[in-house]
Specification:
Largest sheet: 5 strands, mixed
Strand order of the largest sheet: 1-4-5-7-8
Number of domains: 1
Shape: globular
């Protein structure tokens, strides 16, 4: 069996909200422990689906002057989870990039999305945040990947992630949810 588009869409929608992002982190304890406050978990992270960052590049125009150009770009990850201090309302130094296995995506494509994200975020950047979080300081920080695969994901992808020492977890959708979602999408 192969991964179906509805599986990807369900996970993307689920992880896009705070409760779903927290539930995902609970499945990978190392990242759950990075939350600034477990008691105020809902205030301790921002989940951004299909995130966009503003890259800042400095270019030297003349010996004594340089210009900064800014370019907005969508990252190849599916969800960015940014940790925040709930008391001070500022972003901390931890960012988790979630990569959900997409239909017809093989190991090299899956891994390439992480590598492209690493290259892009190796530059000076800032997050383009949802309007409710525009007030937050949002400079770049330490990035960590988390790969989400399914029972239907080919074994070679699981082995590849293990071989590359990349963290992953297997998402098992409840029986019947896939059919319900297909019916809702088609109606």
């Amino acid at each position: 069996m192969s991964v179906k588009n509805v599986q990807y869409q369900i996970c993307l929608a689920e992880y896009a909200n705070t409760a779903g992002a927290i539930a995902l982190l609970k499945q990978y304890r190392l990242y759950l422990e990075m939350l600034p406050s477990l008691r105020r978990a809902h205030e301790s992270l921002i989940a951004i689906p299909l995130p966009i960052v503003r890259l800042r590049q400095r270019s030297v125009v003349m010996a004594e002057r340089s210009d900064i150009t800014q370019t907005a770009i969508q990252l190849p990850c599916d969800v960015a989870i940014l940790m925040c201090d709930p008391e001070w309302k500022i972003k901390t130094g931890v960012e988790i990039m979630v990569f959900i296995h997409r239909p017809h995506e093989d190991f090299s494509d899956f891994l390439k999305r992480w590598r492209q994200t690493q290259v892009l975020l190796d530059q000076d950047y800032e997050w383009i945040l949802p309007s409710s979080y525009q007030h937050m300081l949002n400079e770049g920080a330490n990035i960590h990947p988390l790969f989400v695969i399914f029972d239907e994901t080919p074994e070679r992808i699981k082995k590849g992630l293990q071989g590359a020492s990349l963290p992953f977890m297997t998402e098992t959708l409840p029986i019947g949810i896939e059919q319900d979602s297909v019916e809702r999408i088609s109606s």
